[in-house]
User: Fold these one by one.
Assistant:
Number 1:
Amino acid sequence: MRTITRQAMDWLAGAATDPRDCKRQWQGETGAAVLACGQFWDVLSVPENLGMPTLDALLRIPQAPGPALADTASRRVAFFLPPDSAGRWIGSGIRYAGKGAWIAVPAPHRAAGRLRWLVPPDGTGALFVPAAVELALQLALGRLAAQAGATRRCPTCTAPTEGPRMRSGGRPG
């Protein structure tokens, strides 16, 4: 096993109540282990349609990324951030897991069922910078809003429509 992978496994397993058992679970049937948040990292989970453009923006900045995990069944993306006892992330569909919370993760070098690493941990303890994640989320939300505004919808059935928008009174807008 490569040294980086071993370092990443040790770093992740360090958050388990029993690191050896954690590594056995990664080799087991599910391929995932449940790890504690709040000591080495906290986790910000967002809907996939917001998380993927956010990750894209984060990977474009000249800073080492932290781990990012996708849950394909729930269609969510999780960003690993430094622990923050006062972490307050508010928004529709946004979930924050800090001290007292747990997260299921596969081994750094593989996927497990519905869980796969978009950016695997590198073993150095690198995490996403919260301010950068916040800015990337805002950029992604702006793009999503612009795309939603570009899609014209029927006000009655919400089906996509073509042609000019109508103002009140039935006049083209």
Number 2:
Amino acid sequence: MKQLWLGLIVVLALFLSACSNENSPPDVNALVYEKAKPLSDFTLNDQHGELVTKQQFVGQWNLVFLGYTSCPDICPLTLAKLNVVYKNLKADYPLQIWILSIVPNRDTSAQRKQLLVYFNPDFLAVSGEHKHLFPVVRELGLIYAISDSSESEYAVDHSASVAMVDQSGALRAIFKPEFKQGSVPLINATQLTEEFTKIANYYRN
């Protein structure tokens, strides 16, 4: 009888531990907001010249990063990695990938469209005047800085992180890039896929 009681106690402890783990926030490297941060409405334009507002976030999960069409390294490499992430997740999650172009004076809708033709035409390449664009970027927890250079082609400093916006149109998490000596900072596609799954499942609406 004593052994039976001990066995029942062990089983109960394991059950309670499992329930506790299920209710625990996901253990990930990404910055996760326990309470998602609602985003303000905005007005931008996609690569087809169509109007884009906050409503475009609603009803699906979204991954958003900053870039521009003539970016030499971080942007095309990040797009390639996000294409892998998209293919890994699209069967199980409604997902939209966004690139916010931070040089609207150079990146026309046609140039943005051409960029995505190479990577994935299902993605969104969105931009607009800085007075409309910058507030969106700031609320997403990202950042960029425009050079004072008068040259037609110039580099732009910007975040290499990827923001995760949930199905209600609120900022849920930020995936940080890996920093390796001698390499540009880039997200890890495998890690992002795994962490996205944990976060989306835990905070699923």
